[in-house]
Amino acid sequence: MRSHTLSFWAVISVFSMSAVKILAQPAAYRLSESFPAGKRYAVEAKVEMSGQVNAPAGIGQPAKTVQTSGSSAISYAERVLPSDADRSSKVLRQYRELNFLRVVGDREQKADVRLSVRRMVVMRNTAGVKVPFSPDGPLTWGEIDAVRTDLFVPVLVGGLLPVKDVKPGDDWPVAVAAVTDLTEMGKIVEGGLKLKFVSVVNLNGKKLARLALTGTVTGVTEDGPSRQTLEGTAYFDLDAALLSHLSLNGIQELLDPTGKVVGKITGRFLLTRKPVGADDLTDKSVQNLELKPTSENTLLFYNNSDLGVRFVYPRSWRVGAVQGNQVTLEQTRKGGGILITMEPPAKLPSAEQFLVEAKDQVKILNGKVFAADKPTKSANLDRFGLDAEIKGKKVRLAYAILRNTDGGATFAARLPASDAAELVRDVDRILKDLEVTKAIR
Description:
mainly beta; 13-stranded antiparallel sheet; eight-stranded antiparallel sheet; 6 helices; 24 strands
């Protein structure tokens, strides 16, 4: 039921039925929309949801029912891009609006995208995983998460429409890829969705095929096992060969491991599409953009105003614990970690002092130092490194001291020696934009 993105739920009818005229029905129609590279269109999506979840008892806490609600509003222009060699689908989006609000109990969760990175490339692989990057700058993890769970129109529309000519009264199953996109189920256990060709109507001079969507699907989402029941209406513009409207009512039942319902959420979802404006994502506007992922345009942005630090980092790293005046990063594939400690000016060590501390720390860990670099110093950054063995593993230890008049940071990285050459480049990239953003007391 797309509970994570808050998309899904039924809307008040898009069309006033008094304005709809049912036309004479010919034998069969081709309800098909293609998505060649260069195709452009505009998308708007709105969602409202509400419900409750039964929270189990915890240590010293009784079981309770938690109320949840939310809404989302998304608007963007989209251009289909050529697929990459790995056969992933790609689109370029220019977001005009992207706002999410979710309230769980007394906790409010919001998501938005900074104006500077509202132009994004969104890639979707054959497994349904969506990954965005911006040609204009690094994204935060929150911005990636908001886009990652959004609908992917080429796959959704292609999966909703039939693969052969149909006539009013015919029905067909919705493709698994489209079901996955609508429900956000990483795994579908049983059930499915289907569409029925209801009739051909005339609305405001447009000839539209009216379709009815129904079905129940059981599977696993990021929130765990769930059962989702959907009912709604779609309209296909026969003259423009465009799926222009999709409205849904939805019920999502959250299930425990035994299949018992432990929560219920209902909602409304509306998607509308139309041709883009003449100036949106034109050939000229995109011709100089880097539209393939690189080590630079896939960087992530971290900004902690409370701690007073910001930096960019490769996606193979993730920010870990934030405790007191420290933040950690962890390398997700090859191992290794980084500790950044914010310090007032008086507590920042010299490079020589930090080198002694680093060697002493290796000894405390019953390790051995094989080689030590001579510290290098610049206007605001001192650096050195050690080659060592700790607990039977050879490592490269990289250190730095960042200084400014209001404070600074110490930086310590432990990298597996076997991958040190690659990971040191990651360290260099993090240090390049590491910035202290407030006075450290």
